[in-house]
Amino acid sequence: MINTMYERFAHEYAIHAEDSAYNALYDRPAVLGLAGDVAGLSVFDAACGPGLYAAELLDRGARVTGCDASPTFVEMTSARTEGRADVRVHDLSRPLTWVRDGSCDLVVLALALHYIDDRVALLSELRRILAPRGALVISTEHPTMSWLRLGGSYFTQEPVEESLNPDRDWPIRAWRRPLTSICAEFRAAGFVIEELLEPRPVPEMADRYPEDHASLEALPAFIAFRLIPAAPR
Protein backbone atom coordinates (compact mmCIF):
# COMPACT_ATOMS: atom_id res chain seq x y z
CA MET A 1 0.00 0.00 0.00
CA ILE A 2 2.74 2.46 0.92
CA ASN A 3 4.58 1.42 -2.23
CA THR A 4 1.72 2.36 -4.53
CA MET A 5 1.15 5.63 -2.67
CA TYR A 6 4.67 7.03 -2.75
CA GLU A 7 5.89 5.60 -6.05
CA ARG A 8 3.61 8.05 -7.85
CA PHE A 9 5.34 11.12 -6.42
CA ALA A 10 8.59 9.78 -4.95
CA HIS A 11 10.91 12.14 -6.80
CA GLU A 12 8.79 15.21 -6.06
CA TYR A 13 8.53 14.27 -2.41
CA ALA A 14 12.28 13.71 -2.08
CA ILE A 15 13.04 17.20 -3.37
CA HIS A 16 10.39 18.66 -1.09
CA ALA A 17 11.47 16.79 2.05
CA GLU A 18 15.14 17.65 1.72
CA ASP A 19 14.61 21.31 2.55
CA SER A 20 10.97 21.84 3.58
CA ALA A 21 9.92 23.48 6.82
CA TYR A 22 8.02 20.50 8.22
CA ASN A 23 10.59 17.88 7.24
CA ALA A 24 14.03 19.51 7.40
CA LEU A 25 13.38 22.01 10.17
CA TYR A 26 10.78 20.25 12.28
CA ASP A 27 10.51 16.45 12.10
CA ARG A 28 14.12 15.49 11.38
CA PRO A 29 15.58 17.60 14.21
CA ALA A 30 12.97 16.17 16.59
CA VAL A 31 13.54 12.54 15.60
CA LEU A 32 17.32 12.81 15.56
CA GLY A 33 17.24 14.60 18.90
CA LEU A 34 15.28 11.73 20.46
CA ALA A 35 17.69 9.27 18.87
CA GLY A 36 20.55 10.88 20.82
CA ASP A 37 24.15 9.79 20.43
CA VAL A 38 24.13 7.02 17.83
CA ALA A 39 27.89 6.63 17.35
CA GLY A 40 28.70 2.94 17.12
CA LEU A 41 25.05 1.85 17.30
CA SER A 42 23.20 -0.49 14.96
CA VAL A 43 20.20 1.50 13.71
CA PHE A 44 17.28 0.20 11.67
CA ASP A 45 15.56 2.90 9.60
CA ALA A 46 12.04 1.59 9.00
CA ALA A 47 10.29 3.33 6.10
CA CYS A 48 13.54 5.04 5.18
CA GLY A 49 12.00 7.18 2.43
CA PRO A 50 14.59 8.99 0.28
CA GLY A 51 17.31 8.41 2.87
CA LEU A 52 17.47 11.76 4.64
CA TYR A 53 17.43 10.27 8.14
CA ALA A 54 19.73 7.39 7.16
CA ALA A 55 22.36 9.77 5.79
CA GLU A 56 22.36 11.84 8.96
CA LEU A 57 22.53 8.76 11.19
CA LEU A 58 25.51 7.48 9.21
CA ASP A 59 27.23 10.86 9.47
CA ARG A 60 26.75 10.64 13.24
CA GLY A 61 28.56 7.32 13.39
CA ALA A 62 25.77 4.73 13.25
CA ARG A 63 25.65 1.51 11.27
CA VAL A 64 22.40 1.73 9.31
CA THR A 65 20.12 -0.90 7.84
CA GLY A 66 16.55 -0.30 6.80
CA CYS A 67 13.73 -0.70 4.36
CA ASP A 68 10.97 1.02 2.44
CA ALA A 69 8.06 -0.27 0.40
CA SER A 70 8.98 2.07 -2.44
CA PRO A 71 11.70 0.76 -4.78
CA THR A 72 12.40 4.34 -5.86
CA PHE A 73 13.00 5.42 -2.27
CA VAL A 74 15.33 2.47 -1.66
CA GLU A 75 17.34 3.44 -4.75
CA MET A 76 17.49 7.04 -3.52
CA THR A 77 18.66 5.97 -0.06
CA SER A 78 21.39 3.78 -1.52
CA ALA A 79 22.57 6.65 -3.72
CA ARG A 80 22.34 9.28 -0.98
CA THR A 81 24.32 7.12 1.46
CA GLU A 82 26.78 6.00 -1.24
CA GLY A 83 26.00 2.39 -0.42
CA ARG A 84 26.88 2.71 3.26
CA ALA A 85 23.33 1.82 4.35
CA ASP A 86 22.04 -1.72 3.83
CA VAL A 87 18.46 -1.04 2.70
CA ARG A 88 15.97 -3.18 0.84
CA VAL A 89 12.45 -3.04 -0.55
CA HIS A 90 10.02 -4.26 2.09
CA ASP A 91 6.45 -3.47 3.10
CA LEU A 92 6.19 -2.97 6.87
CA SER A 93 2.85 -4.76 6.95
CA ARG A 94 4.93 -7.97 6.66
CA PRO A 95 7.45 -9.38 9.18
CA LEU A 96 11.11 -8.35 8.96
CA THR A 97 12.22 -11.93 8.41
CA TRP A 98 15.81 -11.04 7.54
CA VAL A 99 16.45 -9.06 10.75
CA ARG A 100 17.60 -11.09 13.74
CA ASP A 101 16.00 -10.91 17.17
CA GLY A 102 17.60 -8.26 19.38
CA SER A 103 20.05 -7.14 16.69
CA CYS A 104 19.27 -3.39 16.65
CA ASP A 105 20.23 -0.81 19.25
CA LEU A 106 17.80 1.73 17.82
CA VAL A 107 14.87 1.71 15.41
CA VAL A 108 13.66 4.90 13.72
CA LEU A 109 10.15 5.07 12.25
CA ALA A 110 9.57 8.62 11.00
CA LEU A 111 6.16 9.76 9.75
CA ALA A 112 4.99 6.32 8.63
CA LEU A 113 3.18 4.56 11.50
CA HIS A 114 -0.14 6.16 10.56
CA TYR A 115 -0.10 4.39 7.17
CA ILE A 116 -0.13 0.92 8.74
CA ASP A 117 -3.42 -0.89 9.37
CA ASP A 118 -2.15 -3.35 12.00
CA ARG A 119 0.11 -1.05 13.98
CA VAL A 120 0.41 -3.34 17.00
CA ALA A 121 1.77 -6.11 14.76
CA LEU A 122 4.38 -3.75 13.30
CA LEU A 123 5.35 -2.36 16.70
CA SER A 124 5.66 -5.89 18.08
CA GLU A 125 7.97 -6.79 15.19
CA LEU A 126 10.10 -3.72 15.85
CA ARG A 127 10.28 -4.70 19.52
CA ARG A 128 11.48 -8.16 18.46
CA ILE A 129 14.47 -6.78 16.55
CA LEU A 130 15.45 -4.39 19.35
CA ALA A 131 18.19 -5.22 21.81
CA PRO A 132 16.95 -5.45 25.43
CA ARG A 133 18.26 -1.95 26.17
CA GLY A 134 17.33 -0.59 22.75
CA ALA A 135 14.89 2.17 21.88
CA LEU A 136 12.32 2.94 19.19
CA VAL A 137 11.93 6.54 18.02
CA ILE A 138 8.65 7.31 16.27
CA SER A 139 7.11 10.43 14.80
CA THR A 140 3.57 10.71 13.48
CA GLU A 141 0.91 13.32 12.85
CA HIS A 142 -0.33 14.98 16.02
CA PRO A 143 -3.91 13.80 16.67
CA THR A 144 -5.06 17.34 17.38
CA MET A 145 -3.90 18.42 13.93
CA SER A 146 -5.91 15.72 12.17
CA TRP A 147 -8.98 16.57 14.25
CA LEU A 148 -8.78 20.26 13.39
CA ARG A 149 -8.27 19.52 9.70
CA LEU A 150 -10.88 16.76 9.33
CA GLY A 151 -13.51 17.74 11.92
CA GLY A 152 -15.90 15.40 13.64
CA SER A 153 -15.04 13.78 16.94
CA TYR A 154 -11.45 13.93 18.18
CA PHE A 155 -11.86 10.28 19.24
CA THR A 156 -12.65 9.00 15.74
CA GLN A 157 -10.48 6.11 14.55
CA GLU A 158 -10.58 5.60 10.81
CA PRO A 159 -8.42 5.60 7.67
CA VAL A 160 -8.64 8.81 5.67
CA GLU A 161 -7.78 9.36 2.02
CA GLU A 162 -6.41 12.82 1.20
CA SER A 163 -3.36 14.53 -0.28
CA LEU A 164 -0.14 14.47 1.72
CA ASN A 165 0.38 18.08 0.66
CA PRO A 166 -2.78 20.18 0.13
CA ASP A 167 -1.07 22.08 -2.69
CA ARG A 168 -0.12 18.95 -4.66
CA ASP A 169 -1.72 15.81 -6.00
CA TRP A 170 -0.02 13.40 -3.59
CA PRO A 171 -2.78 10.96 -2.59
CA ILE A 172 -2.27 8.95 0.59
CA ARG A 173 -4.31 6.82 2.98
CA ALA A 174 -3.55 7.32 6.67
CA TRP A 175 -5.20 6.62 10.01
CA ARG A 176 -6.55 9.28 12.32
CA ARG A 177 -6.78 8.28 15.98
CA PRO A 178 -6.63 9.95 19.39
CA LEU A 179 -3.57 10.04 21.62
CA THR A 180 -5.15 7.49 23.95
CA SER A 181 -5.25 4.95 21.13
CA ILE A 182 -1.70 5.69 20.01
CA CYS A 183 -0.39 5.07 23.51
CA ALA A 184 -2.54 1.95 23.93
CA GLU A 185 -0.94 0.49 20.79
CA PHE A 186 2.51 1.09 22.25
CA ARG A 187 1.54 -0.69 25.44
CA ALA A 188 -0.07 -3.62 23.57
CA ALA A 189 3.19 -4.12 21.65
CA GLY A 190 5.25 -4.23 24.84
CA PHE A 191 6.64 -0.69 24.97
CA VAL A 192 6.63 2.08 27.52
CA ILE A 193 7.12 5.74 26.70
CA GLU A 194 10.48 7.03 27.84
CA GLU A 195 9.94 10.47 26.32
CA LEU A 196 7.07 12.22 24.54
CA LEU A 197 7.90 15.26 22.43
CA GLU A 198 5.62 17.84 20.82
CA PRO A 199 8.30 19.42 18.62
CA ARG A 200 8.99 23.13 18.35
CA PRO A 201 10.32 24.51 15.07
CA VAL A 202 14.04 25.23 14.93
CA PRO A 203 14.94 28.95 15.00
CA GLU A 204 16.11 28.89 11.37
CA MET A 205 12.51 28.34 10.28
CA ALA A 206 11.52 31.80 11.51
CA ASP A 207 13.75 33.39 8.86
CA ARG A 208 13.12 30.98 6.00
CA TYR A 209 9.48 30.00 6.54
CA PRO A 210 7.96 32.62 8.88
CA GLU A 211 4.33 31.56 8.36
CA ASP A 212 5.10 27.91 9.08
CA HIS A 213 7.16 28.92 12.11
CA ALA A 214 4.30 30.98 13.54
CA SER A 215 1.84 28.14 12.95
CA LEU A 216 4.04 25.52 14.58
CA GLU A 217 4.76 27.74 17.57
CA ALA A 218 1.00 27.89 18.16
CA LEU A 219 0.06 24.25 17.45
CA PRO A 220 2.19 21.12 16.95
CA ALA A 221 1.75 19.32 13.63
CA PHE A 222 3.61 16.16 14.66
CA ILE A 223 4.23 14.24 17.84
CA ALA A 224 7.29 12.08 18.56
CA PHE A 225 8.10 9.37 21.08
CA ARG A 226 11.12 7.51 22.39
CA LEU A 227 9.90 4.07 23.42
CA ILE A 228 11.74 1.34 25.31
CA PRO A 229 10.77 -2.30 25.87
CA ALA A 230 8.62 -2.80 28.94
CA ALA A 231 10.16 -4.81 31.76
CA PRO A 232 8.96 -8.45 31.86
CA ARG A 233 6.20 -9.02 34.36
UniProtKB/TrEMBL annotation:
Q: Write down the SUPFAM superfamilies for this protein, in alphabetical order.
A: S-adenosyl-L-methionine-dependent methyltransferases (SSF53335)
- Say if the entry is tagged with keyword Transferase: yes
Any one GO molecular-function label of the UniProt entry: methyltransferase activity
**Could you tell me which Pfam families the record lists for this protein?**
Methyltransf_11
Q: What is the organism field in this record? A: Actinomadura chokoriensis
Which of UniProt's keywords are assigned here? Methyltransferase, Transferase
* Signal peptide region: none
The EC number on file is 2.1.1.-
Q: Key word Methyltransferase present in the record?
A: yes
Q: Which InterPro entries match?
A: Methyltransf_11 (IPR013216), SAM-dependent_MTases_sf (IPR029063)
Question: Please, one GO biological process term?
Answer: methylation
Q: What is this protein called in UniProt? A: Class I SAM-dependent methyltransferase
Outline the extent of the Methyltransferase type domain.
45-138
Domain of life from the UniProt record: Bacteria
